[in-house]
Amino acid sequence: MFENGEEQGPKSTFTTYMAEGDQLFHKGEYVKATESFSAALSLQPGEKTCLVARSKCYVKLGDAESALNDAEASLKDNKDFFKGLYQKAEALYTMGDFEFALVYYHRGHKLRPELQEFRLGIQKAQEAIGNSVGSPSSVKLETKGDLAYFHKSIGVRQKHFIDSHKKEPRQHGQKMPKRERTAKQLLGELYRDREYLEKLLQDEALSAGKAESSLKKARELMKAVQGWTDGVLPNKKEVIGNLHSCIGNALMDLGKMDKALNHHKKDLELAKQGDLMDSKSRALDNIGRVYARIGKFQQAIEVWEEKVPLVCSGLEKAWLFHEIGCCYLELKRYIEARDYGSRSLAAADDIRDGKWQLNASVLVAQVELKLGNNKASVLHFERALDRAKLMHDDSAREAIQKALREARQKVTQ
Fold it and tell me: How many CB atoms lie under 10 A from the CB of residue 152?
């Protein structure tokens, strides 16, 4: 500590607390990191970067309410602070407020479209909305033992089973005043005929994941947009591609996989014509999901491997490599499965993301077990168990402990 008379004392101490908090966060010591960030905020109340940092800790600890409070405080003086917007979306997602989270992911994406985190947030929020109202049964990676808990499906991005929260999604009656704009944000707010489009899009079905209703509305909107000239809608191909994506996802939820695949391929074709990299990445993602859902794992791998060069963020790499690894595991191509599992783990380690460190560790452990590398399997299950304990996820911990016991028995045999 500096003496009271030294002007640089508080600034230096704030910086020290921040650095200490960052270091503790990367080590996974979230309680201590929270204390360091709180100490920093006592010296510089309202410092927005520190508020965001502490909010991240609260998310890791499962305290979504505190995470949301800090995120909102970081936006107090600047509503366009993109880090605060992302953190608010993450907190809302953790609370189960998927529709609200979707709004803030879109706001951030509009401000910083180059950041993959916002696009990934949009996708996971949309899928969570759909999953919260039910979807067709999907392909299980493992049907034996409790490890089926970890791999509910292939081709459907994980719902982050490591999230510490156990809350159910809030009832749709708890709406935000501007929620009807969510679907319009989905389409980029590119239209001039606002009054007509708002009338179509104010129906909650398009943004709430109700497959049949959203399919009907998306088709109505498609018909309207196709009748407009390029002069009225310069981004017409982009909008039509987005609608194909919406229609494809709705059809997928309804179990109409062939039709869903057709629409996602049209989305991909338009993306390639317009050299729209984000749209291309989205389309490849969805095409791979369809192939995986119908058990065509080799086709899913080929599509997702085409997507790999388009991925920039560590988080997106972590889940994409994990998905590809799971497909290779289904095909009993264990060497490739281990390779992608290891790449997923490396990506998760780079960004210190506990959820995907756990996912990837379990995948690699399973593959090593299949290869007969029992000691290596034990080591990865042990790492996954440590992560589950740190995240206070009892269900994950129990599943891993059972698998770990079985792996250890094979080592001693």
Answer: 16
